[in-house]
What does this fold into?
Amino acid sequence: MEEKSIKKIVLAYSGGLDTSIIIPWLKERYPNAEIIGMCTNVGQDEEWSTMERRALNSGASKLYIRDVREEFAKDYLFPMLRAGAVYEGKYLLGTSIARPLQAKHQVEVAMEEGADAVAHGCTGKGNDQVRFELAYKALAPRLQVIAPWRIWDIRSREDAIDYAKNHGIDLGNISKKNIYSRDWNVWHMSHEGGDLEDPWNRPRESMYMLTKSPQEAPDAETEITIDFERAFPVALDGVAQDPTAILGKLNAIGAENAIGRADLVENRTVGMKSRGVYETPAGTILYAALRELEMLTLDAETLAFKQTLGLRYGELVYRGKWFTTLRESIDSFMSEVSRYVTGTVRLALYKGNVVVAGRKSPYSLYLKDIASFGESSYDHKDASGFINLYGLSTGVASMVHQGISGTSGQAAEIQGTAATFHDK
It folds into this structure.
């Protein structure tokens, strides 16, 4: 589609540095096009009353603001939690999981408005461009995608700030001194850029926006209980609450107790390594609690297979593959496998640590009568036959590798002597 033929563009608008300068840039490059902003409230701390004014002053004809916090928690965050999805062992995917939801609502507005194109403020180096654009392809492949960072001459955040100043755009508290790139929602806050670009630099304490440091956290434990139904959190300290309320309260409790900081060098989808620092208080607490409940209610093979799929699920979320058959199919498995993941977990929070203090479930597979070291109904003699059969292949391999001939007459002895030969 030629630039002159584009009449209406819907921009994923955040009010931050990139999207603030994109509106006037779009108007310069596409002078015949109407620019419409689309902003989703996923729990970030914004001055919503001034958001529209800022967008209109930048040149947008209108701004949509949609409060999607409940949808975000119920349909995106909690399924991801249920799957146990963690990227590269540390990242709880707070930014990654928000992008498909934001793109979905952007596409909905574009369709309602009869737009020709959608635009975003993601850089050509990052993961978010992939996440937004794969969502566009899945939901509305006819829409043209405009990615200014891949087109314009701006090459850094410093350049972007200069552009904004030259065009009279209000950036709030963004400056060349306050240059961290942040993303915030009900799940987490991320920090990138600035002095964090050197992996040797320890994050400055002043950088953190949500959590206290362990040194500043209370000197006494904070004990809480979380109730789950089918792996979804439903109550906190015995009081049933909606998803956003649970996340809000856990974020506050966790932040007070220095829970949820993660500093990692991750592998981006585009091939480079990047360094980010994340604050995810509620998510850290919920992952720890659910993991303990699963260990109580899932059998060994099911738990192991679920954990394997959880790794794949995390990769799909990170790489923007939310609107895919594979992700939806894995979610179907997670829903089925979590039928009995219901119960209560008690946690003690203390100076950055999440300590499991207790767990219980009506579907607990832990039977004290069998597991007890005291007198029980378990027959210890049964272990002999089990070990003989379980170790049969090990014993045969050991005898063969040691050059001990195995005749048919000796075969019967292998089961009982395999362990002895192996020790020799």
About this structure: Residues 379-423 form one domain.
